[in-house]
Design brief:
heterotrimer, A alpha/beta, B alpha/beta, C mainly alpha, A: alpha/beta, Rossmann fold, 2 domains, 5-stranded parallel sheet, 10 helices, 14 strands, elongated, C: mainly alpha, ABC transporter involved in vitamin B12 uptake, BtuC, two-stranded antiparallel sheet
Chain lengths: 365, 496, 339
């Protein structure tokens, strides 16, 4: 029996390796599609913000943005920001990426692109560590490298994040406190206890509550619940928590699956007016819930702004402008960048937004 | 109507370049018990598959009950009354006795739904044919091999069988059960059913068969009545060589030390108060019916079970044997009856199987296994035991029963054993390889190893052991020197 | 069936463990045996139970299907996005999804039955392939649920209200589908010759062929059925979620296989049954949905779930071991040594 088990395990491991191998090697630049480079209108007749005015002398830069997967709604939205920036500045900037979120394919695409005489490369890496060698190569060629969602990447000029994690958590808490009337008991939900960003957001929310909302209390018996990144689990757990702790009136959600799941649970238990949830959510997934009132608001950051900010940051680097605390990238969400204390390459905006039933139709991702 | 139930003429069957059957004839009369004998690879299973319609022969004719079939299918063979009871019995261990008896009939009649009532009727009819008493609700996996066999036979009879082919039916059952099987066969014979009995257990086939056909390397070498054969001729036809069997003669040396001593050993539901001793160079036989506790006793000495009370002494020193590891550490080797289950890793290479008990010795200081050292050791044993192999890296399952058994022996002999226990050492082993194993065992004993042979093959015990213990109902009932016994008297002692 | 034979069955012990666990939760929280909690649990069981029924049949036939979450996701995603708004009646969505699932199952079945490749490797491979099609070719992402399925998803069989806390829980109509499926599966496995064929093929493939069973056909059937069921369940899941969440089911295979094994379904094939599979799923679902009620902190919940699985599996493993090592020698009373 032991032997059989071992053999089964072995085959499983072998199969997994083989499959991983397949996935890696089948990726090629062939299935990447390149968004059409934006045309460069020569005139700059108003509309564009001042900060984003074309560089003096109208330098003709080429900026490529490689995202995780270019069919994904999130990045389609990001492309809108990139196109907006290209339109405003007249600089050639375009987005590309693998059709499927696949690290190996993404690296292949980056490899192809840095051989195409570009000035700046913006990357949203699938696997930050795996990208390091190819980004090193890009830097060696004198290309400016800007990352997004890759705060630990070494081989980049800057990594720009929409916000600092504690700040985003505080933003979620402010919204929740508003709904709860700044009093009552709440708890936090994360995808996994091991997901760093989720837990930093939840910690930030708790810190904000402790500082600002003395009448609110964190549920002591169960301060953190796991949704395992699954809406259904989030729903089941939320129900169980509400059964066990009837005093609870608020939830924060971190993973985009948490928020809609909790909202459905609250609704079904007949607690819609008594219990509230605020947290990360995707407009498409939550549209129905926002419109029927199960959810009041979801929080997120706008990928269009991130795309715009990356390109603008790249331009500033190319133009040799000073980058540091307070740098303005011409968007409200990124009008005063903050440099991380422990990592001077890491820049953070305050790019979180809240989406309600009123503006959810502006977002299609 | 023909007097022959089956007549096969000049049948050839090739697999690639291998001539499995090279023009063989086989004629079985109605109501006859016919024995088909031959060593492994002689074409026995191929001819069974030809008769059952599973293989289409490349040449030759098949006539069943006077009707010639140009292209025999399995269904045609069944319709003509041919039933095969395979060596593996083809029963479903995970289903009940009732289902096992009734399923084939129900499938054949194209039934779509299960009816417990119909199943019950068919099952009762089936067991009534041979007067077999069974709990129809029991899972077949909980039955003995003999009972499974009776299920297979009763199932075969349901289809109006005229010829029943039994492939090695006696390899895994005890003498008493063989007697019962023979009673069933004679009953069937009275009903006019012919039996093709495939076996190489000499005493049995001589007892039951009226007619013999012997194959060697895909050719007929003998066909005739049982009276025309004797043991010597039989062995010669089977192997193509003259084999002289010599009884084991134990030369008692005055300085021979007692290696193993067992005192009042008991195990609940196993055996009780067993005491015996064993000297260097002895071959001790332990015989008894299945369920007499002989296997349990051997397994306990080896450490597979932990005895409830009693002592085991090795070279006069009391040892604690609570696990197989203890058994091996104390120099006890055990060759189990089910080689493929307990003795060998069938999917691993021959080399790995032989070297497995000593991997530690083949490893270097860092714990890496030294391939060269293994190769040398394997080559040594392959030569020493004349194991027939192509490549030591081949899978164990490519070997015949005899060669596999030699590998089990090699595995143990590469350790420095004090006591070697062989349980059913020649079950499913060819006659040729069987004599090799006997010769080897005797040689080991002459070199001073203490050997225990556990067997219900009376002939095997008599010709290989100097002393025999008979077990009955979990107790040691008799202790005799083999020189005082003959087949009849020993057989009588074990059933008494 | 007498009591002694009953105690030899794995199902019996799993039932005992379930009962003991429920009582423990009741004692600790006072809320286990309340209408809304029971309804919540039944709802949570619905989807895993349906998957478990399919997997059980594959396991009994001697195979294993690791691709059903992928089949379910792909068929569900296809019908929900490509047929969005085409019908008000939910039925066509189910039928097309089942057809798609059947085709994907047929791919598995053909490779496994024809070339005799290990089912685990084949289905792991096709699983990756099907997910690849969904993510790559169909470009899967969250998608709103089509109205026909949305209204089905909002249909409830009953609503349970907790008199004390006032909490309400709905039992979706899918629960009824699950019950029907379990009954059909029981009938198939126990009352048809096809069911016997599945057991026979899983017990001993060669013997099954000799008995006249169509081994290739049986294996094909099993994988096709598993695929079609997966398609059906996929649509059920999205209509229960009220949204099209393509990645929601990924990774369920291990829990489902674990639930089957827990209920005494053998990984080698031939052994087990619907009752065991149902109990196994029930135990898994109840445990994972009662830890908060029990007051187990999130940090320790995995340890707890793991222990329950090990204890549950140990029951059948120990039984098997005892059966194998059991001795049956009847020892005579008197000692009789003659020399």
């Amino acid at each position: 029996m032991k032997k059989k088990l071992l053999a089964t395990l072995m085959t499983a491991v072998m199969a997994a390796t083989a499959l991983a191998g397949c996935g890696g090697s089948s990726g090629s630049a062939g299935n990447s599609t390149t968004a059409a480079p934006a045309a460069a209108p020569a005139d700059n007749a108003g509309g564009g913000s001042e900060a984003a005015a074309p560089a003096e002398g109208g330098k003709d830069y080429k900026i490529a943005v490689v995202v995780k997967g270019n069919t994904n709604g999130w990045f389609i939205r990001m492309n809108e920001g990139i196109e907006k920036w290209a339109g405003e500045t007249g600089i050639n900037a375009w987005m590309t990426g693998p059709t499927d979120t696949d690290s190996a394919q993404q690296i292949q695409i980056i490899q192809d692109i840095i051989n195409q005489d570009i000035d700046a490369l913006c990357v949203v890496p699938v696997d930050p560590a795996a990208c390091e060698p190819v980004l090193q190569e890009a830097k060696d060629k004198g290309i400016v490298v800007i990352c997004h969602e890759g705060s630990n990447v070494e081989n980049c000029d800057y990594d720009i994040e929409a916000f600092n994690n504690a700040g985003y958590g505080a933003f979620i808490m402010d919204n929740l406190a508003e709904l709860m009337g700044k009093k009552g008991t709440y708890t936090t939900m994360v995808g996994f206890l091991t997901t760093a960003s989720h837990n930093e957001w939840a910690d930030g929310a708790v810190a904000q509550q402790e500082a600002q909302y003395p009448d609110m209390t964190l549920l002591a018996d169960l301060p953190r619940v796991e949704s395992e990144n699954n809406t259904e689990t989030a729903y089941e757990k939320a129900k169980e928590v509400l059964k066990k702790y009837p005093e609870l009136t608020g939830f924060t959600g971190s993973c985009s699956d948490d928020t809609p799941g909790i909202a459905r649970a609250i609704n079904e238990l007949g607690l819609a007016d008594k219990v509230h949830v605020v947290g990360t959510g995707m407009p498409n997934e939550c549209r129905e819930l926002l419109k029927n009132g199960s959810l009041t608001c979801i929080t997120l950051w706008d990928p269009a702004d991130a795309g715009y900010a990356m390109c603008e940051l790249a331009r500033k680097c190319l133009d040799g402008e000073e980058i540091g605390n307070g740098t303005d990238l011409g968007l409200p969400a990124y009008d005063s960048l903050q440099v991380d204390e422990s990592n001077e390459r890491l820049l953070m905006g305050n790019g979180f937004i809240s989406v309600t039933a009123d503006n959810v139709d502006d977002y299609d991702f | 109507m023909s007097e022959n139930i089956i007549k096969i003429t000049g049948v050839k069957k090739y697999f690639g370049g291998v001539k499995a059957l090279d023009g063989v004839d086989l004629v079985i009369k109605k109501g006859e018990v016919h024995c088909l004998a031959g060593e492994n690879g002689c074409g026995k299973s191929t001819i069974i598959n030809v008769i059952s319609g599973f293989y289409t022969p490349d040449a030759g004719t098949i006539e069943i009950d006077g009707k010639e079939y140009s292209k025999l299918t399995t269904q045609m063979a069944i319709d003509a009354g041919v039933q095969v009871i395979y060596q593996d019995l083809s029963v479903f261990p995970n289903l009940t006795v009732r289902e096992n008896l009734a399923l084939n009939m129900e499938v054949a009649s194209g039934k779509k739904f299960v009816s417990k009532k119909r199943f019950q009727e068919i099952a009762l009819e089936a067991i009534s044919k041979i007067n077999f008493k069974a709990d129809l609700d029991e899972m077949v996996e909980n039955l003995t091999v003999a009972d499974k066999q009776l299920i297979a036979i009763s199932r075969a009879l349901l289809n109006n069988a005229k010829l029943i082919i039994m492939d090695e039916p006696t390899t895994a059952i005890t003498q008493k059960e063989v007697k019962n099987l023979f009673r069933v066969i004679r009953d069937l014979q009275k009903q006019g059913i012919a039996i093709l009995f495939v076996s190489h257990k000499l005493d049995e086939v001589f007892e039951i068969a009226e007619h013999f056909t012997i194959f060697r390397s895909g050719k007929n070498v003998f066909s005739g009545r049982t009276e025309e054969l004797d043991e010597q001729k039989f062995t010669y036809y089977m192997t193509g060589r003259e084999i002289q069997e010599e009884a084991f003669r134990y030369e008692k040396r005055p300085d021979a030390k007692t290696v193993l001593e067992v005192r009042d050993l008991s195990l609940a539901n196993g055996f009780a108060d067993c005491s015996f001793s064993l000297k260097e160079g002895e071959i001790l036989g332990i015989t008894g019916l299945l369920g007499s506790g002989r296997t349990e006793l051997a397994e306990t000495i080896f450490g597979y079970h932990k005895a409830d009370s009693g002592e085991i002494l090795i070279h006069g020193k009391k040892v604690e044997i609570g696990s197989v590891k203890d058994g091996i550490a104390n120099g006890i080797g055990y060759v189990p009856p089910e080689r493929n289950v307990q003795g060998l890793f069938m999917e691993q290479s021959i080399a790995d199987n032989i070297s497995i008990t000593r991997w530690k010795d083949h490893a270097d200081r860092l714990g890496f296994v030294n391939e060269k050292s293994i190769e040398d050791s394997v080559a040594h044993w392959v030569k020493e035991l004349s194991i027939k192999i192509n490549d030591p890296q081949d899978n164990m399952k490519t070997l015949s029963g005899g060669n596999a058994q030699k590998c089990v022996l090699a595995k143990w002999l590469s350790l420095d054993l004090k006591v070697l226990i062989l349980n059913g050492p020649t079950v499913g082993v060819d006659i040729g390889a069987k004599y090799d194993i006997y010769k080897l065992t005797k040689k080991l004993a002459e070199n001073g190893l203490a050997v225990i042979i556990i067997s219900d093959d009376i002939r095997e015990v008599l010709s290989n052991c100097n002393r025999v213990l008979v077990m009955r109902q979990g107790r040691l009932a008799e202790e005799r020197m083999t020189s005082e016994l003959d087949e009849a008297s020993l057989s009588a002692l074990s059933v008494e | 069936m007498n009591f002694k034979r009953l105690t030899k069955k794995t199902e019996f012990y799993i039932a005992v463990i379930i009962l003991a666990f429920c009582l423990l939760v009741q004692v600790r929280s006072g809320q286990f045996f309340t209408g809304n909690n029971i309804v919540d649990l039944l709802r949570s069981m619905t989807i895993p139970m349906m998957f478990c029924v399919g997997e059980m049949m594959v396991l009994i036939s001697g195979g294993v299907d690791c691709s059903f979450p992928a089949i379910a996701s792909l068929s569900m995603y296809f019908v929900c996005t490509k047929m969005d708004g085409m019908f008000d009646n939910p039925l066509p969505y189910f039928l097309v999804a089942m057809l798609l699932g059947l085709c994907m199952g047929a791919v598995n079945g053909f490779i496994v039955a024809k070339f005799k490749f290990p089912a685990m490797i084949v289905t792991l491979g096709t699983s990756s392939l099907f997910l690849g099609i969904m993510q790559g070719i169909l470009g899967s992402s969250e998608y709103p649920l089509t109205s026909g399925l949305y209204s089905l998803g909002s249909t409830k069989l009953l609503t349970a209200v907790n008199a004390k806390s006032g909490l309400t829980s709905d039992l979706p109509v899918h629960f009824a589908f699950m019950i029907i499926l379990v009954i059909l599966a029981w009938l198939l496995m126990n009352k048809t010759m096809l069911g016997r064929a599945i057991y026979a093929v899983g017990g001993d493939e060669v013997a099954a062929a000799r008995a006249g069973f169509h081994v290739f056909g049986t294996r094909m059937f099993i994988f096709c059925l598993s695929g079609a069921l997966a398609g059906f369940i996929g649509v059920c899941r999205s209509s229960m979620l009220l949204t099209v969440s393509p990645n929601n089911m990924i990774g369920m295979e291990m829990d489902v296989i674990a639930a089957c094994v827990l209920g005494g379904v053998s990984l080698i094939g031939g052994r087990g049954g619907i009752v065991g599979a149902v109990l196994g799923t029930a135990l898994m679902t109840i445990v994972s949905n009662s830890l908060i009620l029990l007051g187990v902190s999130t940090q320790w919940s995995r340890v707890f779930t793991g222990l329950i699985i090990i204890v549950g599996t140990a029951v059948s493993a120990i039984q098997e071991q005892q059966r194998k090592k059991k001795l049956f020698v009847t020892i005579s009373d008197k000692a009789e040594v003659k020399g």
